[in-house]
């Protein structure tokens, strides 16, 4: 089934989406928010520009966007996959606690902010290009991977990555010599064993977007972990 | 009695968008109105507005004053005041069309004026300073009159309503501008007065703003020492005066002004090549640092500047197509103006995006 989103506001579009069973293609998307919020067990392909909070609370559905996406994609998602064949705005994967988000291009500020994991829930955010500042801010769990395949010469990550990090794991395909991490986290060169942890997801990423997984995995990665001996105690104010 | 801006404080959300032609090609207002439709839900119908540059070529040497009046008594008083200092070459109603969603309109007038040479000689102020003082005086002393636009060859158009409706109300399809900015307002509560909508303007500087700055009072106390009067308690008004102060009065470049209001953190200044300049600006203008979330677009004669707060707590996207550069809170807003955009870019916090019309083309 196809829904032409032109001229529909976000309520009408989401209502149509809910009233159709099975897989759906949305065309002519133009900034409608909350698309597929909370949905499970179906495939949704989107052309055009989906609005903010795409796939919020997603619960198992697979969303594929042909181009770019805006802010807060996968906000608090629980399960499923979101695949973005372009760049993504700020706060991607905001507080997600399960499922995967694949981004072919760059991510904006605060990618993976407050991701968390619990028991069998283990979210993954994988970004092909570079990210803005505050990557993994307050990260509490899950895995964030940044591959740095961008071509514009900018750093793989902006300022202040991992601020407030107290759980989870972050992989950057870079030696990170120009990157300043906070004192409350530790950064080290990934061991072969650690790289094996992300091999499957990187292969999946490459399959989706047409990259060579062996080439990518042959590079050096930096792994960032919270320093449990020196955790964040207070961040901004003394009270 | 309804409270107006200045009597109650209203935090706001908002949508912004803009387009500029680097070649100075002029565009009618339909497309900038279209850009606000996908962002409809970022506004709540309590304020919308537009600024347009290059729209009055036949009067380009005169200041175009756009004024709201409560009634004809305030209009007569204001006109009497203007006649004492200005040559008024044209006075008229700003054309509007009846619109079902735009109600309670004030009297909306437009004047093309120039300060009298004899008056300038007597008060010993330059033309722009005299004009700015006049705007402050009318807005604080002439009851029921509010100047909401005061630059040359440009104008702001704003109202209480959704921006799409405001654009239709003001017949923006009849204006041709080389640059447009737009704003949709989302105050959480409002007394609902037209003067409180964006853009805010002084001379040819206009600001559309999405956000809620937390440094308002610190900024206001500083800027009021230099003759600016913040009457409306809105953060956008103070940002407008800061821009005028830094750029016109202090002679800073746009880049320097940007690094005053969205100064880099001390922890990152040391690594910068221009650290001496940045330290100097942070020290001299420390009270003009704007904190809290904002994304703004500053309009001025011949250009636009987009700027985010240094933490980037609001969104901003830019893109290009041929001679045109687009800026907006959301990429969808840009695509609504031009489906085939190139070079989509998200500026970093505190990174100004400055676009100028080439010399001689405006």
List the helices and strands and how they pair.
The complex is a heterodimer of chains A (239) and B (362).
Chain A: E1 2-4, H1 10-19, E2 24-30, E3 43-49, E4 59-65, E5 79-84, E6 100-103, E7 124-127, E8 140-146, E9 167-172, E10 185-189, H2 192-209, H3 213-217, E11 222-226
Parallel strand pairs in A: 1-2, 2-3, 3-4, 4-5, 5-6, 6-7, 7-8, 8-9
Antiparallel strand pairs in A: 9-11, 10-11
Chain B: E1 15-21, E2 27-28, H1 30-36, E3 48-53, E4 63-69, H2 72-85, E5 86-93, E6 107-115, H3 117-123, H4 127-141, E7 145-149, E8 154-159, H5 163-169, E9 176-177, E10 179-184, E11 200-202, E12 205-211, H6 216-223, H7 235-249, H8 254-261, H9 266-269, H10 275-284, E13 294-300, E14 303-308, E15 317-321, E16 324-328, H11 331-337, E17 342-345, E18 353-356
Helix pairs in contact in B: 1-5, 1-11, 6-7
What does the model show?
The complex is a heterodimer of chains A (239) and B (362). Chain A is 14% helix and 26% strand. Chain A has helices spanning 10-19, 192-209, 213-217; strands spanning 2-4, 24-30, 43-49, 59-65, 79-84, 100-103, 124-127, 140-146, 167-172, 185-189, 222-226. Chain A is globular. Chain B is α+β, with helices and mostly antiparallel strands and 362 residues long. Chain B has a single domain (15-211, 293-356), classed as 4-Layer Sandwich (Glutamine Phosphoribosylpyrophosphate, subunit 1, domain 1), CATH 3.60.20. Chain B contains eleven helices and 18 strands. The termini of chain B are far apart. The mean pLDDT of chain B is 93. At the A-B interface, loops of A face helix 11 of B.
Question: What labels describe this entry?
Answer:
heterodimer, A: 239 residues, alpha/beta, Pectate Lyase C-like, 11-stranded mixed sheet, 11 strands, globular, B: 362 residues, alpha+beta, Glutamine Phosphoribosylpyrophosphate, subunit 1, domain 1, 5-stranded antiparallel sheet, 11 helices, 28% helix, 27% strand
Q: Largest sheet of chain B at a glance?
A: 7 strands, antiparallel
From the N-terminal CA to the C-terminal CA of chain A, the straight-line distance is 56 Å
The helix tally of chain B amounts to 11
Gyration radius of chain B (Cα, Å) is 19 Å
The strand order across the widest sheet of chain B is 8-3-10-1-16-15-17
Task: Tell me the span between the first and last alpha carbons of chain B.
Answer: 45 Å
Determine and state the CATH class of chain B: Alpha Beta
Please provide the ordered H/E string of secondary-structure elements of chain B.
EEHEEHEEHHEEHEEEEHHHHHEEEEHEE
- The DSSP helix count of chain A reads 3
Which chains have the largest interface? A-B, 24 and 20 residues
What is the number of domains of chain B? 1
Instruction: Specify the oligomeric state.
Output: heterodimer
Overall SS class of chain A: alpha/beta
Looking at CATH, the homologous superfamily of one domain in chain A is Glutamate synthase, alpha subunit, C-terminal domain
Residue stretches of chain A low in confidence (pLDDT < 50, at least 5 long) are none
Write the CATH fold name of one domain in chain A.
Pectate Lyase C-like
Number of strands of chain A: 11
Question: CATH superfamily name of chain B?
Answer: Aminohydrolase, N-terminal nucleophile (Ntn) domain
